[in-house]
């Protein structure tokens, strides 16, 4: 897999397919493989660039404090390195926070912004959950314990109870002891410090918000604020789902993305 050096971080990424670019940014835990399903489907019509965020996968670690603005600049720099003048930005959770600043700092670079399970500012219960998760990792110092104590917060109680195999897969995904603990701790703080509440009105690109009605981490307070403040916005709520609604309601999630990109990609760029 290729690696590009930006000002502050080495970034590992995949680049598959041809056509108008879609730039994918994953959440606080994980790497580019979080987008495997989306890449496999959409690469037939689009150029799919999925990154390992700083602190994740094959990218360099985050060894000190950083901001979502700095991470947005890193992603815009990677677009420069890859010769991408303009792209759809698809960000999940922390990736959606980064995407907000990409749209604010590089408005001519973001053709459309898609945020899944994101927020302009983590609300009190989301803050408590993220602080709990950070403290578990600090106290126990291993990812297996972190996963056991945290995974239930990503899905609804019904999904957790009815899908033991899927939950085992989720726990296994984030139980990799090779994951950088210091990066997670720093990026957890990054997410908690994020606040674009007063800047949402300055996001001018077409924006799609996808949110789980029952998400306690990036909840409906933030979703409603983004919907009310961003000018050119569409919001799709996944009524039965939580933070991982792209797993809980996978078919609806994929169909929503396909429809959005088909409607918002320049016609001469569609394959």
Q: Into which percentage range does the β-strand content fall?
A: 15-25%
CATH class: Alpha Beta
H and E order:
EEEHEHEHEHHHHHEHEHH
- Can you list the strand order of the major beta sheet? 1-2-4-3-5-6-7-8
CATH superfamily: Alpha/Beta hydrolase fold, catalytic domain
Content-based structural category: alpha/beta
Descriptive account of the structure:
This protein is of the alpha/beta class. It has one domain (3-269): 3-Layer(aba) Sandwich (Rossmann fold), CATH 3.40.50.1820. It has helices at 36-42, 68-81, 94-105, 124-140, 143-150, 157-162, 164-173, 181-193, 220-229, 245-248, 250-264; strands spanning 3-5, 10-16, 21-25, 47-51, 87-92, 110-116, 207-212, 233-238. Strands 1-2-4-3-5-6-7-8 form an eight-stranded mixed sheet, with helices on both faces. Helix 4 packs antiparallel against helix 8. The longest helix is centred in the middle third of the chain and has 17 residues, at 124-140. The model has no long low-confidence stretch (mean pLDDT 95).
Question: What is the compact description of this entry?
Answer:
With 271 residues, the protein is α/β, with parallel strands linked by helices. Helix content is 43%, strand content 17%.
Key descriptive features of the protein:
11 helices
Layout of secondary structure:
Blueprint: E1 3-5, E2 10-16, E3 21-25, H1 36-42, E4 47-51, H2 68-81, E5 87-92, H3 94-105, E6 110-116, H4 124-140, H5 143-150, H6 157-162, H7 164-173, H8 181-193, E7 207-212, H9 220-229, E8 233-238, H10 245-248, H11 250-264
Parallel strand pairs: 3-4, 3-5, 5-6, 6-7, 7-8
Antiparallel strand pairs: 1-2, 2-4
């Amino acid at each position: 897999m290729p690696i590009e050096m930006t000002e502050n971080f080495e970034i590992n990424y995949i680049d598959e397919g041809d056509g108008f670019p879609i730039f994918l940014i994953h959440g606080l835990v994980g790497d580019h493989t979080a987008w495997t399903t989306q890449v496999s489907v959409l690469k037939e019509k689009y150029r799919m660039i999925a990154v390992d965020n700083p602190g994740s996968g094959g990218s360099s670690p985050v060894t000190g404090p950083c901001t979502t603005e700095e991470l947005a600049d890193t992603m815009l720099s990677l677009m420069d390195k890859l010769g991408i003048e303009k792209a759809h930005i698809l960000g999940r959770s922390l990736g959606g926070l980064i995407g907000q600043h990409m749209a604010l700092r590089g408005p001519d670079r973001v053709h459309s912004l898609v945020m899944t399970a994101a927020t302009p500012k983590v609300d009190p219960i989301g803050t408590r959950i993220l602080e709990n998760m950070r403290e578990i990792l600090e106290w126990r110092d291993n990812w297996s314990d972190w996963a056991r104590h945290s995974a239930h917060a990503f899905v609804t109680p019904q999904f957790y109870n009815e899908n033991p195999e899927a939950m085992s897969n989720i726990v296994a995904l984030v139980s990799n002891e090779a994951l950088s603990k210091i990066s997670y701790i720093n990026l957890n703080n990054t997410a908690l410090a994020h606040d674009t509440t007063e800047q949402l009105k300055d996001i001018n690109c077409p924006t799609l918000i996808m949110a789980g009605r029952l998400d306690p981490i990036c909840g409906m307070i933030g979703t409603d604020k983004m919907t009310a403040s961003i000018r050119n916005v569409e919001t799709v709520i996944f009524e039965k789902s939580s933070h991982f609604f792209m797993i809980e309601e996978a078919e609806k999630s994929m169909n929503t993305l396909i429809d959005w990109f088909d409607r918002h990609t320049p016609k001469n760029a569609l394959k």
